Structure formats: C-alpha cells, structure tokens
Amino acid sequence: MEMVRNSIVVLVAGITLFVAGCSSTPKVADLTGSLSNSLIQAGLKDVSVSQDRDKGVVTLGGHVGIDTDKVQAESIARSVAPGQVIANQIAILPAGLETAAKDITELPRRDNPTAPRPQTEP
Question: What is the dihedral of CA 83, 58, 30, 80, to 10 degrees?
C-alpha cells in the first residue's frame, strides 16, 4: 500500500514538472536595435523593425523604393536573427509615384458604383 502511494506521488510530481517545463519557453534575445542599425548602415532608413520575443518573430515594416531593397532587408534580418521567423511587410513605393495612387475611399463601390462610400474614422 505504501509503495502504491509513493508511486502516485512520484508520478504526479513528474507530470507537474513536465508540464511546467514545457510551458515556459525561453525568450529570444532582443535584436531590434542591432537589426535597425544594420538596416540603416545598408541605406534602408525607412524600414522599421519589431520583434515578438515570445513567438520568435521579427517583423519588417515601412517602405523601400525597389524590390531588391526589400529582398536585401529580409536577407539582413535573416543573418541578424537566425532561427527566427521573418515577416516581411515592407511596401514597395517607387520614387515619384507615391502621389499617383488614389485614396481607396474615392473609388466607386463594385456592388453599387453610385452609392457613396462610408466615412471612416481617422
């Protein structure tokens, strides 16, 4: 009887330690500063960096003028943050064409082109 009781106690303690060990994933190092510096040194000053250290995700934002700059920014991020997921959300805005794009709220609706667009809150 004593042996069964001790076995149950050891089993419960083992399960508790296993669950506690699995639920506490270590955070990755903060790389936003070093990655931002590397991007600035590469001439990519309009690229922003954010990091979710719990999930191991580095997000690149902002804008660049050409596609090769976007690819270069992602390559730099992969070298600075190996093993982390890189979410490349950089927009490509060719120089001189930023004002050529129309505000989407000025476009007619497809379902009813004559209907006014709803006003959005700023």
Answer: 50
The vertex-22 CA angle with 16 and 8, nearest 5°, equals: 20
Helix (H) or strand (E) holding 67: helix 67-80
Q: What is the pTM of this model?
A: 0.61
| Residues 76, 31: Cα–Cα separation, whole Å | 12
| Whole-number Å distance between alpha carbons of 32 and 53 | 10
Q: CB neighbours of 34 closer than 8 A, spacing ≥ 6?
A: 80
Domains in the chain with CATH codes? 32-95 (3.30.1340.30)
Q: What percent of the chain stands above pLDDT 70?
A: 58
